[in-house]
Write a structure and sequence with these properties.
Radius of gyration: 21 Å
Number of strands: 8
Number of helices: 16
Strand order of the largest sheet: 2-5-4-3-7-8
Amino acid sequence: MGNVPMLHKLLLLLLVSLGPLATAQAAPPAAGSKSATKSKSATRAAENRAGTSATAPTVVEDIEPVHPGVFLLRDPLVQRELQLTPTQTTAAGELASEFNEAIWRFRDARIESPEAQREARLVNSKIEPRLRELLSPAQLSRLEGIGLQVQGASALGYVSTAQKLALTADQRRSIARIEAASRTTLQKLRTEASGTESAETSRLFEKRSREFQQDLQAVLTAGQRDRWRELAGAPLELRRLRPLTAEAPELRNVTAWINTEPFELRQLRGKVVVLHFWTFGCINCIHNYPSYKNWLEKFPTRDVVLVGVHAPETEGEKDIARIRDKAQENGLSFPIVVDNDLRNWQAWSNSIWPAVYVIDRQGLVRYWWYGELNWQGAKGEQFLGDKIRELLAEK
């Protein structure tokens, strides 16, 4: 099943890195899909599907996301705001690239899960010293303030914010109850939307989001609200920020190339790329073939490129000659990357056949859909098709 952009924004803010993907749009694993067995990614995805209760725990856990600065520093607006030198700008890009895949791996994890928190602590222990080394104290303070603005009142649920505002145990429990209620309500809206998008759904999401933000702020005392504004600093025009999401993991260790000469994803910058994982023996993957063909007909190849990563489930599906034959039989003319060693499957931390990812012109992963696109009335093909058009219109 899919989702609506505004609807998923707050949910993603509650994921492992702010989430790492605050403006990317994800869909939970759908029924029309096959999960890899004995997969940590599949375990995370199943955990994410389970949802959460609106009942807050008696003891509030110390939750902390991955530091948002690692991706914020990649943004030209933030670079200008911090007045980074050319050397700092280069180093910021290298830092984001270094931790890109570590953050991307946990895109589907719930922030409160033990696995997500272990990963966040590990990544932060490496990122934070590097940020202190890269930036002046004034620059670091401003960066953290921008991070708070991006996170909004949701940051009140993080232990670092609780410490800076001296939140009491009762306040933290109240915040946990509000956030649990928000997850339940927004998940319900997301399910009801079922991959469609409408002005009414967006209006309702925005209304609910404002209400939750107001409820969170109401927990604070007047002095704590003053301190919050001090920490956040001068307002930044957040709508001008680029999406806070990961770069597409680069292709690697390809077994064979079909319908194409070897290439790298970075060579496709300037185009919208639709990358999907599939295998010819998967009926759910086969059911997506018409959607891929429709996109090839609707979108000019100079602007949109489809890339199929063939990740085998069985030994028989590793036969390159059979992959070529199946592609030809089914009229699959797009470039096919044969991933017999599953190195790309692992780099993308994928756990589902089929899975479709949409990458923007800058190489950032913006949308993804797990499972059949049109499973039992789901509108994944329409949803992602609309997103492709939106990305094509971006400058």
